[in-house]
Amino acid sequence: MAEVLSIPTQDQVAAVLTADWVPVIALDELVERGRKVVKVGRKQIALFHSEQGLFACNNRCPHEGYPLVEGSLTTAPQSGNCLLTCNWHNWKFDLESGETLTGGDKLRRYPVRVEKGQVLIDVSDPPGVERAAEALANLKDSFRRQEYDRMAREIARLQAAGSDPLEALRGAIAWTHDRLEFGTTHAHAAAPDWLALRDLSGGDEATRLVPILEAVANLSYDSLREPRFAYAEGRAPYDAEALVAAIDREDEAAALAQLRGALAEGRAARDLEGPLASAALAHYQDFGHSAIYLQKTLELIDRLGPSVAEPLLLALVRALIYAWREDLIPEFRDYADSLAAWDGQGDAPVAAADFIDLNAGRAMARALRSSGNRQALYDALLGAAAWNWLHFDLAVETRTDGPVSDNKSWLSFTHAVTFANAVRHLCSRHPALWPAGLLQMACFVGRNAGYTDAAIEESGWRVECPEEFLEDSLRGLLDHGQSEYILVAHLVKTVTAVRDEVLASPDAPWVPSLVAATNRFLNSPVKRRHPLRTARQSLAFVALEG
């Protein structure tokens, strides 16, 4: 073995001239031992003497921290390089090239040389910018297999490098926005609520990491193994009416050209809120997702800055174009006529009880009678949505027979509340949209009315201090223990929306019922997979195919 290890690249040669070379062990002793752990400051470094030379690396396996000094050294069959295997989970590292051959995270290696019989290690750290860039690249690589633990480690490394950890979320948005066939998902909608929860989490590093990890991991999951769904190119001079019209006729190319034109003219995302809100509320559509996604997309851009505006708005416009137009199905066929009949003159007093047990058509008709008092009507409809949610009949969720149209769940009821929250924000800034927003709230109340149980007692779920309960519930989501991303997204979105409504109107008549409903929801089982029901409905469907 040569007395001094060669430094194969110019960059490494330059590093030698300025690096912190530390003598750690006599060469003879290392040759005799074969391997040795040395500590330099906080660094724990494994040294190896092998047929291929001397190597130094982090002793802690980047997977779960087990000691690599206990690993196995072999010769890689193809390259002939020195191969280190962690014997705990069989991760393999090429100590010469630095590649991780089996596993995920990169292994930190240290340059080694020998002088006057002493082994020296260069323990200087790469610049923070370089380490941050590597952490982001490794985070992106973790998306291939949806490696949740690795994502957490890479975000932690990004932060340790002195970078803004929100760069992980900005990166995730850029990497995934064109791998979503139908645009915006619950991952985007939950992200600003996770970041708001981060503000509540206090100064503990772990609890501040969780919200970023959850938002990034959800985006990773939603795009997992998805191909690229390219957005149409092109740009047109921006015209708000043309943007709304293109979305309504489901012309993605034209709509995206308008969007790109607006951004090229220097318009901010909030400048587009009006026309996008008009498009989101043009129909009773997509089970409320359109309005919710718009509101949350804008909140996310507000938090992360203009660099994410284009990818987020491209995904949003695609989601608006592919939205279901539910006002075209029989259950909600009265929506268009009701909207046309709205004159803002209805003066009948209104309360939540007026909407209990009404179907969608009758609920919209009742709303028209009180169209002159928007605040009272909003309170009544939100109160009715809260009553429905509190009285959801759990037998509906657990039964295994019945038609597909009766496949209702807790999330059928939470959407009425998150939609109402989006309506309040959007329509308060764009008052001309109040008739559409309120009538669509009536549609939600009507569609859920048939799946309630009036015998459920509200008193058992009442909460004495609503604001404290909601804040504690949000903090509890930092360790939620749920495996399904879409359920977790609904949990954080729903509790955030309820808290937002209560903080905005703490004395509103619906507060007790809304918070009680939240309490029951958080403390009840949520059945998300229905094998027997799915099998029975599939057999019935196929039997009727003729």
Quick take:
The chain has helices at 10-18, 27-33, 128-142, 148-160, 166-176, 186-200, 205-222, 240-248, 252-264, 273-280, 289-304, 309-321, 335-341, 360-368, 374-390, 394-398, 410-429, 434-448, 466-476, 485-504, 511-522, 531-543; strands at residues 21-26, 35-40, 43-50, 53-58, 72-75, 82-85, 92-94, 100-102, 109-110, 112-115, 118-122. The protein has 546 residues and is of the alpha+beta class. A hairpin with a 2-residue loop joins β2 (35-40) and β3.
Task: Describe the fold and architecture.
The protein is an alpha+beta fold and 546 residues long. The chain folds into four domains: 10-122, Rieske Iron-sulfur Protein (3-layer Sandwich), CATH 2.102.10; 128-222; 240-326, Zinc Finger, Delta Prime, domain 3, CATH 1.20.272; 331-533, no CATH class. It contains 22 helices and eleven strands. The chain has helices at 10-18, 27-33, 128-142, 148-160, 166-176, 186-200, 205-222, 240-248, 252-264, 273-280, 289-304, 309-321, 335-341, 360-368, 374-390, 394-398, 410-429, 434-448, 466-476, 485-504, 511-522, 531-543; strands at residues 21-26, 35-40, 43-50, 53-58, 72-75, 82-85, 92-94, 100-102, 109-110, 112-115, 118-122. The strands form three sheets. Strands 2-3-4-9 form a four-stranded antiparallel sheet, covered by helices on one side. Mean pLDDT is 93; it is low at 1-18.
